[in-house]
Design brief:
Blueprint lengths: L10 H17 L4 E6 L5 H9 L3 E7 L5 H11 L8 E2 L18 E7 L8 H13 E11 L1 E2 L7 H13 L6 E2 H10 L2 E9 L3 E8 L3
Parallel strand pairs: 1-2, 1-4, 2-3, 4-5, 6-7
Antiparallel strand pairs: 5-9, 8-9
Helix pairs in contact: 1-2, 2-3, 4-6
């Protein structure tokens, strides 16, 4: 059977989706509202929407060209609790970038594999925007590779970082302590650091008291 021409495929999302879903099932309550930043092909949000039935997911991306793929993946997985994707630029002070404002705060904001393929300013924008749009007890969850102080870097991550910087000098794997510092500036604290396959981490940020 031929795949629809609108369907885009990310090998990375295919590889890591189930591992992330397993962690989300451990971390999340039975129901809630989630915003996904940088939804890309839509594979993650379709997988999560189909397997976390108590959750409503709002996909978003800077590139509207990805929206047909997001919708098609959700249709194929039967993820009926996923809303139509929205334009969102993490550097903007207003989320979303167009159309009606989000109706209410989110219990979770999820962002995978964005920080290392975007300028460093996007980390600041993500943290500040998450602080604006999270519910009082909400959490920001990020996934991807990070460099850590006093932790030897995996050769694969060093090679990946080099390839990213060759493609774009503003890209690269981020230092965890610098990401945490940006979160703290926005009033978020790192609550959990979870090891993931292929030298990736799942980070859970929560609002700091006060």
């Amino acid at each position: 059977m031929n795949l629809p021409t609108t369907l885009r495929h990310s090998p990375a999302a295919e590889r890591n989706g189930q591992a992330i879903l397993t962690r989300l099932k451990q971390l999340l309550p039975a129901q809630g509202r989630a915003l996904e930043i940088a939804s890309g092909t839509g594979q993650h949000v379709a997988l999560f929407g189909a397997n976390l039935p108590g959750w409503t997911w709002q996909p978003s991306d800077l590139n509207a060209d990805d929206f047909p793929s997001i919708n098609e993946w959700c249709a194929q997985t039967g993820a009926t609790q996923v809303r139509p994707p929205r334009l969102l630029d993490v550097l903007a002070t207003l989320w979303p970038a167009a159309g009606a404002a989000f109706e209410q705060p989110f219990d979770v904001i999820f962002c995978a594999n964005m920080l290392h393929i975007s300028p460093w300013a996007c980390c600041h924008g993500l943290m500040q925007g998450a602080a604006r749009h999270l519910a009082a007890n909400g959490r920001l969850i990020t996934y991807g590779p990070y460099f850590e102080r006093d932790v030897p870097s995996a050769p694969s991550n060093l090679a990946f970082d080099g390839s990213l910087r060759e493609r774009d000098a503003t890209w690269g794997i981020r230092d965890l302590h610098e990401v945490v510092a940006q979160a703290e500036l926005a009033g978020l604290r790192l609550a959990s650091r979870l090891d993931m396959p292929a030298n990736n981490l799942l980070l859970v940020f929560e609002r700091q008291a006060g």
